[in-house]
Amino acid sequence: MRRRKTAIFFLVLGICLCILAVVLNIGWILLNLTEVALLVLGIVFFALIITGLILNTIFLFREIRRSEQHDAFLNAVTHELKTPIASIKLYLDTLKTREVSPEKREEFYDVMLADSDRLLRTVEQVLVAGRAGEKKRQLNVSEVNIGSVLSEAVGIVRSRYHLNDDVIRMTEPAGDLKILGDVDELRTVFINLLDNAVKYSGADPRILVRAKRATLNKKVDVFIRDNGIGIPAGELKRIFKRFYRVANKSSKDTKGTGLGLAIVRSIVEKHGGKIRADSKGEERGSTFIVHLPLV
Ligand code: ADP
Q1: Residue 261 Cβ contacting ligand 1 at under 6 Å
Q2: Averaged pLDDT, 45-74
Q3: Which carries the bigger pLDDT value, residue 183 or residue 26?
Q4: pLDDT tens, position by position, 4-56
Q5: Would you say residue 136 has pLDDT above 60?
Q6: In this model, does residue 113 exceed pLDDT 80?
Q7: Do the strands 286-293 and 219-226 form a parallel or antiparallel pair, or are they unpaired?
Q8: Residue 228's closest CA among 263, 183, 198?
Q9: How does DSSP assign 39-91, residue by residue?
Q10: Beta strands 274-279 and 219-226, pairing class
């Protein structure tokens, strides 16, 4: 809240300075109409000052927004680390201090395993996001069959969320679609996209996965469509930035770090591909389309 006020203060200050400079300059021009050389010089300086002020204000505003996102990220990561640890500790305490029936004990072990998976996923995501910036990192390149990577990713997400087979439906691609790439990284891309599709689709997710050869060029398009909370038009590009999370209620109710899509985009681009998101708006589902060059 305080930071918002500071941002508004500096924004108003920037705008006031611009207005002041305009008024001063117009007054000055009127007073010096005869002295043309000075006038030209004055106009040049004036343009410089105004540009500087505008750049300064934009920079300030961006910095404040970035620092807000960093704060939100830190909160999210801390939460994602603390919650599973607290839960594991609670179960361990219970196991240590009370008599627990064998069935309950099994159930506790399962919950603790799920919590440690969650912990590991968050830590891995932070590590991968840190590495994603390194341009030179070597890819382990081989010929990868898109159909099989997609099936593996679908299997992993189905078991992660204990989903019935009809929640994520995959249309088998016609023919072999092979690309040159790092199979682990490509799997990460599709797992992240499918994980989001489940996470942001409320109680009854319906997800469709389809890969098809793009008609004209040697490319493959992978579509991952969900029936979830959707994405407002203005956010479709921003969601790929690091730490960025849509600030509406439905997104806030879902935990996350804002790193997943940044990682996805970086991997896709390293493979010479592109990714974009499409949505008809809030509550109307989203589609993520990954474009990759075929062998
Ligand atoms: P996280 O899910 O950890 O917040 P991501 O980088 O994976 O981070 O996603 C960034 C944001 O994009 C999410 O916070 C969410 O607001 C939005 N988003 C991503 N995938 C979807 C989706 N399938 N449907 C609706 N919103 C999505």
Answers
A1: yes
A2: 87
A3: 183
A4: 677 778 778 888 888 888 888 788 777 777 677 777 878 888 899 888 889 98
A5: no
A6: yes
A7: antiparallel
A8: 198
A9: HHHHHHHHHHHHHHHHHHHHHHHHHHHHHHHHHHHHHHHHHHHHHHHHHHHHH
A10: unpaired
Pairing of strands 207-213, 274-279: unpaired
Phi, psi of 268 (to 5 degrees): -60, -40
Instruction: Please give the single-letter amino acid code of residue 80.
Output: E
Q: Ligand 1: does its nearest atom lie under 6 Å from the Cβ of 197?
A: yes
Task: Phi first, then psi: give them for residue 221, nearest 5 degrees.
Answer: -110, 125
Q: Which atom of ligand 1 is nearest to the CA of 257?
A: 3
At 194, list the tokens.
């499918």
Quickly count: other Cβ atoms within 10 Å of residue 196's Cβ: 23
Poorest-pLDDT segment among 20-34, 203-217, 248-262, 267-281: 20-34
| Token duo for residue 137 | 């990192």
- CA-CA distance, 276 to 225, in Å (whole number)? 12
* Binding site membership of 246 for ligand 1 (Cβ less than 6 Å): yes
Question: Does residue 268 contact residue 241 with C-beta atoms inside 8 Å?
Answer: no
Q: How far separated are the first and last CA of the chain, in Å rounded?
A: 52
How far, in Å, from the CA of 104 to the mean position of ligand 1? Answer: 35
Cβ(257) – ligand 1 distance below 6 Å: yes
How remote is the CA of residue 244 from the centroid of ligand 1, in Å?
A: 8
* CA dihedral of residues 108, 112, 117, 120 (deg, nearest 10): 180
> Which of 200, 248, 253 to mutate to test ligand 1, by most ligand atoms within 8 A of the CB atom?
200
Bridge pairing between strands 168-171 and 207-213: parallel
Contact 181, 149 (CB under 8 A): no
